[in-house]
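fyi for ur records
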Amino acid sequence: MAHVRLKVIDLGDEANQPMCSADGRYVVVYNGEIYNYRELREQLRGYPFRTQSDTEVLLAAFSRWGLDCLDRCNGMFAFVVLDVQSGELVAARDRFGVKPLYYARLGDALVLASEIKAICHLIPSLRSDNEVAWASYLRYGRYPEPEETFYKGIYPVPAGHVLKYREGEVQVSRWYRFVERVRSYGLGGTGVEERYEELLHDALRLRFRSDVELGVSLSGGLDSALLAGLMRTLGRDRVRAFHFVTGDMRYDERPWVEAFLRHNAMHLEVVQLQAGDVPRLALEVMGYEDEPYGGIPTLAYSGVFERARSAGTIVVLDGQGMDEQWAGYDYYARVEDGEDAVVPVQGSSDSPVRPQCMVRAFYEIARRSSFPRPFGDALQNLQYRDIFYTKLPRALRFNDRISMMWGIELREPFLDYRLVEMAFAMPAQWKIRQGVHKYLLRKIASRYIPEGVALAPKRPVQTPQREWLREALHRWVEEMIQRALDEYGGQWLDPDAVWKAYRKYKSGVGDNSFFLWQWVSVGMWAQIRRGHATIRA
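which gave:
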């Protein structure tokens, strides 16, 4: 068991890991934060604590309550506990999968790690393509979360699940019962708005706990503005705010940010991503992500975390999660109107993928996504899909890797499970009313942020990706496509069809560049696999 620690709570060396329980029976390695560790510590009186860390609280809680401690923990976490006495190993992941955990089998042996590359280092034979995952990605735009990776034989422990290993046997089971909790949720008739607002304050209060400086990632949207506005009410108005721009006013959110800051005294750090930064940064980020990621917006966020680290800000708060729990995406309204909601990309009318450019045999092994529909409400089923299978898992993976790439702990206050469950359980008219998405949330937000920001329509986080890939970066795009075809042409991709589709896009046809980014990703994947990429240590 091995661990590299980012010190955020209790900076002393005694809080380092692996950590043994007081009686020597349990050993833990753990990634994340238990935000309510002080409250849990009060419930664990009598345990001989040696540190002020949340790690030791987790260890004490597991010693006393076993896996029942998971329901008591409010946080983001992936941990492994070894019971020295019984020889059983237990690994668990937080409710929504904020923190990563992967595993692989080698005979009767089990290897677990928070990064895929660590497993590949230990078992080099696993550096092989999961061709079904790649085919599904290229044909449908499908990422293999939550049960597979792009590597054959390497699997994630799914969000809200626990893995048990003993004497060569592995069992994976669900511990977080989201569906049951939502079905039994009692909203009551009055005071719902006030109760949710109280939970907002409490979720943020818990995530203020840190022995290092905090900052906030600020876009021009409702969610991050609400986060910053709430921070002021809790006495955190002098934190650093970080915001990225690209120099293209068709996409940059700076006017919205400045409108918010006219009413909020925050120190703003503006980070600019330029087209010339992309080729180097894209490959470096691919090395940390270990798998394909979402595109140039991910690179822009990487710049935000790099600036935060250079400014000495170790913990950054982010507004992720509100769109999924409050039905913020435009396609949610289509479900409410009884229409088909299969619209793959917010703010785009063009198909994001080009399956006709795949080799036929490879095309045919792709798996179409199939999602459970545990609720009797179509809107809730779509939200459930996005929270556990599509939107949120992708965003959390992308952002966790690029924040940790720079040694930043990224906290998501709006993914406090109490907030998600309560908002999810609310009736549709509180989420979408007269074409206004996140209706009740906007009403709450208007008490903390300017009306123009609170009522602004949903805008997808965008960069000039479609323009840059078509124009400023076209030589790099062509180089990456050629690398992809050198490695997988005739196996995965049809070279003639690929170049024909590329030339059509380059001529100005189409408003979605995702398929180009897919081919660039295949090219970068080939480059990394062949050892032609240098990743920052």
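The radius of gyration is 23 Å. thats all i got for now
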